[in-house]
């Protein structure tokens, strides 16, 4: 008989109440007034909301940095008209990080407890002037806490590794937004592997995305978005690495279905793809494989073929006698485990688990010195290794 258990949800609402005390204000500088930071109809992300839930009355957003004042005003107006207005009433607007850091050099007492960077990758994560805000911040504040969205940059991979080397000279706390690492289902799979002392033989990641609501034109240009593996499949390359370890990048091999292939025609595109040069159009399906340094093999199958709204996702892990599947990471995550004792899979459900809440719970706890640094599950170096893998797949 199939055995099914359910793990209770994380109690975000209770945690807000637990943090209601106003005695230690936590100051945040938010960089970017777009979808990841303030929500978008395409998905469940909304970093500001998760920070509000974590900190309650203790939150003060000191600065919102965004080059387009209209966007900043729209966000601030809506926040000031909501039940979290206390956190935004005094927020100052800046149009660039340089302007903000210049202000802080004259007002060091306003140094924020955390910087939260959620902007397109062209504008950060590099060692080149103009896209080097992480380095600018840590040069001025060597102990700063930075939360940075994925992908960590769109710069050359060697430039990103140079940033890693430069960041190592400072004590900054850095967390990269690979939120799936914080899912309870992922934690449970990690624990199972550890408890049973398993050697992973292969990781097989499947990410089938729905395309008809994705109307951001830049996303459909490989050179502008970085391509769907760098931009989107990155979450599953990252999770594969989380279980498989470091990748031997020279072993990456790829096949893909292009828009020009007869089976690559999509009937419900939300943008006019005719205006995009053919060599710039995104592949419909990418099949990549690689060897990990451990000798294990990784596989990624990424597609942009489903219509509707839900994504279909799965990560399979195999080890001698054990078959572990992590299913529906964007929806209701489930863990399936087949072990040597029985051919029948055990199923564990993890309903209502919010990895965005948990990644900020960990980041804020570490930034406040209340949690050990190990609670941050993805740092800049690790995010750079994932970026390196996604670039190798895209350029193969
Ligand atoms: N982890 C997730 O689930 C997830 C979900 C969505 C987006 N993201 C990532 O977040 C990043 C941003 O995506 P988005 O959807 O918010 O994009 P967006 O286009 O909705 O918003 C980007 C915002 O950044 C601002 N901006 C641009 N350059 C800037 C600069 N130099 N300084 C300050 N602000 C600047 C823009 O004005 C805009 O407000 C991307 O890297 C994306 O991959 C992650």
Question: Can you walk through the features of this model?
Answer:
It contains 13 helices and 15 strands. The protein has helices at residues 12-18, 35-38, 47-55, 69-80, 85-88, 97-106, 133-140, 157-167, 184-195, 222-225, 228-244, 355-367, 380-395; strands spanning 3-6, 26-31, 59-65, 92-94, 114-117, 145-148, 173-176, 202-210, 247-257, 285-292, 297-306, 312-319, 322-327, 334-339, 342-349. The protein has a 9-stranded mixed sheet with strand order 1-15-14-13-12-8-11-10-9, with helices on one face. It has a 6-stranded parallel sheet with strand order 4-3-2-5-6-7. The chain has 396 residues and is an alpha/beta fold. α7 links the parallel β5 (114-117) and β6 (145-148). The protein has 2 domains: 11-177, NAD(P)-binding Rossmann-like Domain (Rossmann fold, 3-Layer(aba) Sandwich); 184-352, Dihydrodipicolinate Reductase, domain 2 (2-Layer Sandwich), CATH 3.30.360.10. α6 packs parallel to α7 (133-140). Bound molecules: nicotinamide-adenine-dinucleotide.
Question: What ligand molecules are bound, each kind once?
Answer: nicotinamide-adenine-dinucleotide
Q: How confident is the prediction overall: mean pLDDT?
A: 95
Structural class: alpha/beta
Task: State the CATH architecture of the largest domain.
Answer: 2-Layer Sandwich
Strand order in the sheet with the most strands: 1-15-14-13-12-8-11-10-9
The CATH superfamily of the largest domain bears the name: Dihydrodipicolinate Reductase, domain 2
CATH class of the largest domain: Alpha Beta
Q: Measure the end-to-end span.
A: 45 Å
- CATH topology name of the largest domain: Dihydrodipicolinate Reductase, domain 2
What share of residues is helical?
25-40%
β-strand number: 15
